[in-house]
Design goal:
homodimer, alpha/beta
Chain lengths: ~300, ~300
Amino acid sequence: VDYANFEQARERLAPHLPPTPLVESDGLHLKLESLQPTGAFKVRPAMNSLLADLDRAKRKGVVTSSSGNFAQAVAWAATRLGVDAQIVMQRAASDFKRNRTRNFGGAVIPCDNTMEARAEATRRIVEETGRLLVHPYDSDETLAGDATVGLELLDQMDGDFCVVAPISGGGLIGGIAAAVKQRRPGCQVIGVQPEANPSMRASIDADQRTSVSPKPSVADALVVSKPGERGFRMTQQYVDDVVLVSDDQMIDAVRQLAVQAKVVAEAGGAAPVAAVQSQKVRAGDLPIVCIISGGNVEPAKFAAWLADA
Amino acid sequence: VDYANFEQARERLAPHLPPTPLVESDGLHLKLESLQPTGAFKVRPAMNSLLADLDRAKRKGVVTSSSGNFAQAVAWAATRLGVDAQIVMQRAASDFKRNRTRNFGGAVIPCDNTMEARAEATRRIVEETGRLLVHPYDSDETLAGDATVGLELLDQMDGDFCVVAPISGGGLIGGIAAAVKQRRPGCQVIGVQPEANPSMRASIDADQRTSVSPKPSVADALVVSKPGERGFRMTQQYVDDVVLVSDDQMIDAVRQLAVQAKVVAEAGGAAPVAAVQSQKVRAGDLPIVCIISGGNVEPAKFAAWLADA
C-alpha cells in the first residue's frame, strides 16, 4: 500500500466528500466523521472502491456484505454514482440498519446469521452476475479511502499530534497511521478496541493475525473477529499502542459527546474519547485528536443512555 | 450599524473562534453554531462585546443578565480573556444552565423571577462596581458579533442562497441579514419564531416594536417578549419573511437532526429546520442554509424526545 494511493484516493473523493470538520471540545480535537452523508467514515472506502473500477461497477453493479456502516456507505456511494448496489445482510441485522441501507438506495439481500452464510451468498452473487465485489475493510482501495482521514488531519493540525481511532478490521487505524507516520513521524497513533472484541490487541501480542470470538458489546460497529491483512500489517508497522475500553466507558463517552460537544456518536465512534477519559492514552505534550468514526446509534438506545445521565 | 463593524468583529474573533462548519444533510446546509465552545452562537456577540472594551473589562470586570446561552457565552469569553464575570440569573433558571455558566467560569448572581428584578439587580451592580455591562442582543457590538455568522456564510456558499435563522431578540437574524443582503442582494433571509412567542412577527405586522407575553414553549432560548431596537430595524430593512413554528414541529426537527444529521440541537436551534420541514420556507431554486444556533438541550428532555421517535 503506497502513499501515492492515498493521494489518488483523496483526489477521487474530493468532488464527492468535502473534508470533515475538526472541532475542539474540552481540550480534545474531534474529527467528525459522524457528519459524513451516511453518518460514518465508511463512505470514504466505499466511494474510493467504486471510483477505482467505475466502468465495471456501472456495467455490472456492485455487491458487498456488511450489516452496518459499510452497507449504508456503499448504498449511498452507488446511488450517487448511478451504480446498482446489492448488500448482503444477515437476517438478524436490525431494522434500523436495514432501513437506512434501503433509504440510501441499496437492495438488501438477506442471508442466514453466520459469517460463512454471508460470504457464501456474496460469492454466489459475484459468480452469477459479475458484479464488482468490494470488501468492507481489507483491500488496497478501502485502506486508501480510510487513509484520507489522515491526510486531512495533516492539513488541519499544525505540527505533531496524537491521533486516537477505533479499530474494527484495522482499515481505518491502518490507513490513518500509514498516512500520518510517513509524513510526520513525530505523531503518535493509538488504536482502541472494545474489551469484548480485542482481536487486534491479541494479534499484535501474538505477532500474527489472531481470531477472537467477539462477545456482545455496545460497539456494534467494532465486531470483526480477526483483523484484515492490510490493517494488521499497517498497525504492526505504524501504530504505537492498542488499548481496550469497556461498554460503560463508551456509553459515558457517548453521553459526554452529546452533552458537552453536541455531537451524536455511536458507541464505537466514541471509543477514542472513552480511551482518553479512562487515562489509557499517554500523549505527553501532544494535542489529542479523537476520530469520531460514526454516529449511527439507534435512537432508542441513545435516548436510554442519555436518560441515565 | 455599519458593515465595517462586522469586518472588525470578524478580525477580533478570529484568534478565538474559528469559523463553524457548514455541512450538508438531506439537501439542507446546516451551519453548526451548536459546535461553538459553549454550544451556541452567543460566544460571538459575547466575545466581541468584551474585546470592544477590553481595558475596562479587565480592570472592572463584566456583568450581564441572561438565563441561558448568553450567560454561558459571557462566562466562557471572560475566562478566556482573563476577565472577572458576574451573571445575573433568575432563581427559576434551571440547574443545567446555572451549572454550565459556573463551569465556564462565571459567578452566578441570583435575582427574583421577573425581567424587572433582573434588570434592577444588573443596574445596581453596574452602579456599585463600574463593571462593563454587556447586553445579550441589543448593542452595536452584539449585532456585529452576530453578523459574523453571515460573513462566514458568504465565504462558505458560492452564489445566492436562502438562509433561515431563529429569532429571539432579533440580533442574530438582523446581523446575518445586514451582512448577507448588503453583499449579495439576491440572497433570501427568513426568520423563525415559536408560535408561543411571535414578538418579531407582531412587530413587523404592526410596523413598530411590539410586546407579546411569551407563552411556555420548548424553545427556551427564544423567549424575548419584545425585539431589540437594532434587531427590529435590521429585520424590517433586510429580512424577507418571519414565519412561526409549533413546539411539535421543533421537537420533530430536533429528532431528525439527531437521527439523520448526527447533530445535537436545542429546540430553538432546530426551529429553522422545523420551518423548512413544515413547508413555511419558500426558497425557490436557492439552496437553503439553516442556522443551528445552539445545542444546549437538557439531556433528560432530549432523551425523552428521542425515545418518542
